[in-house]
Design brief:
The protein is built from 14 helices and 13 strands. By secondary structure, the protein is of the alpha/beta class. Helix 4 crosses helix 10 and helix 12 packs across helix 14. The structure holds (2S)-2-hydroxybutanedioic acid. The site of (2S)-2-hydroxybutanedioic acid has 6 residues, from loops.
Length: 397
C-alpha cells in the first residue's frame, strides 16, 4: 500500500522551521514562521493569558464537548473585536460566528462551505499572498485566481491595478482581502481604498472574504479593524476568518473564528446549518481552552487592560526592530535603500531578497527566510541583528 507513496514537498513556511530545528549551526536564525519573539528571542506566554488560565483552572467544571460552532459568548466576543463594541452585528441574527481551530481552520471551513454550498465559486487571492492560502483552498477544491496587489518598484499597494482587476471579476465570485498587516508584504489599504474596494465589490455582487490574523499588530486593535468595519458598513454579506494566535500569543491553542454575515436572519439560519455540517464532518467541534482564555481576558477589565498593554509592547518592539534592521543594514553597507521596511506594517517585512538570495542565506548562513523574501521582523534581536546583516551583505553585496 505505502510503497508507491512519493515524498511531498515541505511546507514553504513550516517546513523551514523543521529544517531550522534540525540545523546544528549554533548561531542559526529563524525569520520564517510568523511567531512573535521577545528581545531574548523567546515566544512568551502573555501575563494576561497566564492569569486567565489560573482562573480557568479553579473555575472550569467540565471538559464536555462544545457546540459545533463553539460557545455563543465566544462568538459575540469575536464580533466585538471585529466590528466594535456598539456594532449592530454583535446581536444581529444575520451574523454568526463559529469558533475554529485557528485562523487556518477558519479558512478551511470557509473553503469547504463555499465549495459545497455555493458550488465552488472562483476565489481571487492577492498576488502575492500567504503561502498557505493556495494549499488550503485547493484542498477545499475551490478554483483559484489572483488579482495584482503589490508594486515591487515602490514597495506599496498597486491600487490602480488591483481595482482594475477586481472590476473584471464576475458576480458570485469571492475576493480574499487581508484585514491588516498584509501577509507577506506588510502593505495595507488606506481607509479610502477600503471604501472604494467595498463599493466595487457590492456593485459587482462579489463576496468579500477577509483574512484577519494580525489585529493589533499595525496600529492598534481598534485602528486595525477600520478597513474591515468600512467594508462591513458597505457590504450586506461577508465572511471574516480571524485568529487570536498572534495577538494573544495563543499559537498552539488553535483559537480562531469564522464569522459570516448574511443579508437577513432567514438566510443566516440556513448558512449556519450548512456551516455546522462542514464543521461536523471535519473536526466535529472546536478545542475549548484557547477560546476560554480569550473570553476570560475579555470579561475581566484588569486582564483586558493588561493584555492591551502587552499587545502594545509587542507591536512597539516590532516597530523599533524595523528601524534597527534598517540602521544596521546601512551600518553594514548593504547595497540598496531599505528605508521602506519602516513603512511596512505587522510582523513581516517583504525585504526584496530574491529566491536565490534566500537559498544562499539558508544553505550557507543558516538564516531561514521564506522564499518570497518575507522576513519575520519579530525574530530579529539585538543579539542576532549584526550576524543577520553580515549574511545579507554576503549575498546581496
Ligand atoms: C505565517 O505566515 O508564518 C503564519 O501565518 C504562520 C503559518 O501558519 O504559516
Amino acid at each position: 500500500m505505502f510503497e508507491q507513496v512519493t515524498v511531498a514537498p515541505p511546507d514553504p513556511i513550516l517546513g523551514l522551521t523543521e529544517r531550522f530545528n534540525a540545523d546544528p549551526s549554533p548561531d542559526k536564525i529563524n525569520l520564517s514562521v510568523g511567531v512573535y519573539k521577545d528581545a531574548e528571542g523567546k515566544t512568551p506566554i502573555l501575563h494576561a493569558v497566564k492569569e486567565a488560565e489560573k482562573i480557568l483552572l479553579k473555575e472550569e467544571t467540565s471538559k464536555g464537548y462544545k457546540p459545533m460552532t463553539g460557545d455563543p459568548a465566544y462568538g459575540r466576543c469575536v464580533r466585538e473585536y471585529l466590528f466594535g463594541e456598539s456594532h449592530p452585528y454583535l446581536d444581529d441574527p444575520r451574523a454568526v460566528t463559529a469558533h475554529t481551530p485557528g485562523g487556518t481552520g477558519a479558512l478551511r471551513v470557509a473553503g469547504d462551505y463555499l465549495a459545497k454550498v455555493h458550488n465552488a465559486p472562483t476565489l481571487h487571492l492577492s498576488d502575492p499572498t500567504w503561502a498557505n492560502h493556495k494549499g488550503v483552498f485547493t484542498a477545499a477544491e475551490l478554483p483559484l485566481d489572483s488579482y495584482p496587489y503589490f508594486d515591487k518598484t515602490t514597495n506599496t499597494v498597486d491600487f490602480a491595478k488591483m481595482i482594475e482587476a477586481i472590476g473584471q471579476i464576475p458576480a458570485g465570485d469571492v475576493v480574499l482581502l487581508h484585514g491588516c498587516c498584509h501577509n507577506p508584504t506588510g502593505a495595507d489599504l488606506s481607509n479610502e481604498q477600503w471604501q472604494q474596494v467595498g463599493q466595487l465589490l457590492k456593485e459587482r455582487g462579489i463576496l468579500p472574504l477577509v483574512d484577519f490574523a494580525y489585529q493589533g499588530f499595525a496600529e492598534g486593535v481598534e485602528e486595525d479593524a477600520q478597513g474591515l468595519r468600512t467594508l462591513a458598513n458597505i457590504c450586506d454579506e461577508l465572511i471574516v476568518c480571524s485568529s487570536f494566535s498572534k495577538n494573544f500569543g495563543l499559537y498552539n491553542e488553535r483559537v480562531g473564528a469564522i464569522t459570516i454575515v448574511a443579508a437577513n436572519a432567514k438566510q443566516q439560519a440556513a448558512v449556519t446549518s450548512q456551516l455546522k455540517l462542514c464543521i461536523r464532518t471535519n473536526y466535529s467541534n472546536p478545542p475549548a481552552h484557547g477560546a476560554a482564555i480569550v473570553q476570560t481576558v475579555f470579561n475581566d477589565a484588569d486582564l483586558r487592560h493588561r493584555w492591551h498593554d502587552e499587545l502594545t509592547a509587542m507591536r512597539n518592539r516590532i516597530n523599533s526592530t524595523r528601524q534597527l534592521l534598517v540602521d544596521k543594514l546601512a551600518e553594514h553597507n548593504v547595497s540598496g535603500d531599505y528605508s521602506f521596511i519602516t513603512a511596512q506594517r505587522g510582523m513581516f517585512s517583504f525585504s526584496g531578497l530574491t529566491p536565490e538570495h534566500v537559498k544562499t542565506l539558508i544553505d550557507e548562513h543558516a538564516v531561514y527566510i521564506v522564499n518570497s523574501g518575507r522576513i519575520n521582523v519579530a525574530g530579529i534581536t539585538e543579539k542576532n541583528v549584526d550576524r543577520l546583516c553580515q549574511a545579507i551583505k554576503a549575498v546581496v553585496g
